[in-house]
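for the recovery benchmark. tokens below, seq after
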């Protein structure tokens, strides 16, 4: 389980891609992908996956990413 804490929300997901998609929705609106072609959607989500790596490495101020094993309490 992944948890991303930003200045405006805490997002939880099972995978990096799912978390990246939720982060994109947080910043661009829930239906941001409805009006874009698949290539743009894929590219945008991939940019957020890369941003998660930067957060994970401590390079993004005011953001924190934590990982827990599935089933851990």
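predicted aa per position
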């Amino acid at each position: 389980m992944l948890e991303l804490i930003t200045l405006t929300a805490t997002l939880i997901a099972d995978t990096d891609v799912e978390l990246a998609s939720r982060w994109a929705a947080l910043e661009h609106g829930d239906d941001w992908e409805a009006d874009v072609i698949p290539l743009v959607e894929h590219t945008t989500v991939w940019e957020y996956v890369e941003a998660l790596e930067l957060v994970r490495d401590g390079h993004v101020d005011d953001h924190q990413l934590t990982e827990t094993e599935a089933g851990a309490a």
